[in-house]
Design brief:
Two copies of one chain form a homodimer. By secondary structure, the first copy, chain A, is of the alpha/beta class. Chain A has helices at about 5-30, 35-40, 45-55, 125-140, 160-175, 185-195, 255-260, 260-270, 275-280, 285-310, 320-325, 325-340, 360-370, and strands spanning about 30, 60-65, 80, 90-95, 100-105, 110-115, 150-155, 180-185, 200-205, 210-215, 220, 315, 350, 375, 375-380. Chains A, B: InterPro entries: ATPase_NBD, Cro/C1-type_HTH, ROK, ROK_cs, WH-like_DNA-bd_sf, WH_DNA-bd_sf.
Amino acid sequence: MDGVNPTNVQALVRRTHEERVLAALRERGGLSRSQIAERVGLSRTTLSEITGVLIGRGAIIVTKTDGDVRRGSGRRAELLALDPSSGQFLGVDLGHTRVRMVVADAAHEELASGVATYDASLGWPARRQAAFDLIDAVAVEHGLHFGALQGIAVGVAGPDAGARHAAHEAFAERFDCPVVVDNNTRLAALAEAMTEDTPGDLAYVRLSDGIGGGLVIGGRLVAGGLGAAGEFGHVRVVRGDQPGARCRCGKRGCLETVASLPAVIAAAGVPDAAALAAAVAAGDPDATSAVDTAADALAKVLADAALVLSPARIVIGGSLPRVAPQIVARVAAAVGAELAAVGSGLPDVRAARLDDEDGVRGAIAALYQQSPLLAGYVDPLEPPTTVSRGSARV
Amino acid sequence: MDGVNPTNVQALVRRTHEERVLAALRERGGLSRSQIAERVGLSRTTLSEITGVLIGRGAIIVTKTDGDVRRGSGRRAELLALDPSSGQFLGVDLGHTRVRMVVADAAHEELASGVATYDASLGWPARRQAAFDLIDAVAVEHGLHFGALQGIAVGVAGPDAGARHAAHEAFAERFDCPVVVDNNTRLAALAEAMTEDTPGDLAYVRLSDGIGGGLVIGGRLVAGGLGAAGEFGHVRVVRGDQPGARCRCGKRGCLETVASLPAVIAAAGVPDAAALAAAVAAGDPDATSAVDTAADALAKVLADAALVLSPARIVIGGSLPRVAPQIVARVAAAVGAELAAVGSGLPDVRAARLDDEDGVRGAIAALYQQSPLLAGYVDPLEPPTTVSRGSARV
């Protein structure tokens, strides 16, 4: 170890252990000491020393025992979390017909939330104003001043980069803090991953008015080098002599023309989603056939993606699986058949756990992954110029 | 910044900057100061202070100017690199008919390399012995004692987890250092990514006796949660009424039955690869048709993967594109047509740059990504028990 002072090395190692503990709490909210020890790969003894120092410094607090969530018996473990007052995080989901917002603290506790609806024909300036009005109304109602706002994440519908830029500009001008903008379906993928004990790898597809998706690899959301990862909806599934229906993207036979909610409603010959749900529940042959066709096309797309990505989990969300839940089991069986021959394990195929709040929860999760300053602790990967930001407290 | 001593914070920030500079040099070998500054996001002034300290400490050295590699004019810039004597890295590629090895130092300079062939019918014990004999012979010839061996990476053919475990056990028993084992096609993907100025995102497919591939996302090799990422060869491309040829995986109509070298040779009605190359070069209609069919099937698989992953680059390697180079342009055109409608940018589709040495270069690259101890500097993310390893010098 020529040229390195052992005392400095010890201090550096300890600092780094502290940073890893804080990073785990930043991403996951409340965790017990044994959960932290497993996650960061430290012994219980080393971890106890570190959490003792961090509690003494006020960077983390003991929130409660885990008795309300844990399974099995045994002594209740204390849950540790970042000092809640050290930061606020605002998540916004700007959908086609409504805007949702959630404010959470550094301990991942929800402070307030709200939703407002608007007409799908409204332009961007009116939607932006609706979002700002909602945030103001919720802030007044809950006495929030956003004095320790660490960041805002905004989910927007669709892959349009122009919409993302407009949203970024508007929120950055209105709020003096970092702003992250992403496709709200991709944020939903992140939110689903965060419902797992170990976020790991996940391929998420959402079947609603359109079809979108997202990838989480190594616990991180993947945008792709070109920024458009997750476009499952525009993989073509109708091939050969049949041309397939025209897709809104301009191609023919995309998955979206077969497995979106409107496509299945049309194929089943019913007027709307409620009628489709009733027909599926009653075992109507046309409705069943339309759902099965959608499931088989989706299974082919997901199996091909799983051969390339080898994800541990595949999650199916959106309105179609809520109307026709059997789609999940049929896709799981078909994906399993396609992958069994190649000898790797099989992914767990499941329905989404989160409902319409998935986008706004994903927005908050994206902030927890990116937040530079928490618990009064400097993220050493950021240059010192960011340190002063957000140091005012509520 | 309650509770945090500003002096400690400054020291921590400086330490972290040093670690980022060292990490950049570890992964990329020699870099100029401006290349480092761009890569780690520091100003030239801050960077010069840091490199001055690191040079003074002996952790990094000035290797040479970049006059032999840079384009354009202007003053030559010094290239900085990690102290070469601080570590050795051994890469091994165990193929079906030959084993290759390369030894490199911490500055990414190749110290020695070698290759030995064996019969494809040889079992694992004989292959392992061939690898050890090759390493011993090269070490004697070049006077290497492996006294500062930081790690060994071994590429093995095929997705068989048993083969990977056997290789790991054998090399870990023979050499007292960390061993990494991965599929050699995946390592080839990493090697291709490392030929780029910015490794970024890349989807790699290799068309040879079989078809394999690999993904690099955010500069890192992706194994997938189930560990089998990159199995492009077993995506089914023959569908509908045509059953497709039986694949060695048990399914019918996999890409491998259409676009592997043996499949194209059979479809072209020629006896071997040399005859296929001659027929393709002469414009023989059967050979051209067989190559076009392979290219179209590959394009469909790669376009679907690109819709999901949105990679900046797609790289086509292996023996088939060497025999029939036109395959790359045809795939590029078809992928572009499939992606144009969805409005993201188009990936750069190119032929592989590396030849049969890609696996062993990828193995070395994997070590540079993972190496825990370099330049006499403790990686603070590793517990102190790893510090003593590798401190002996040649």
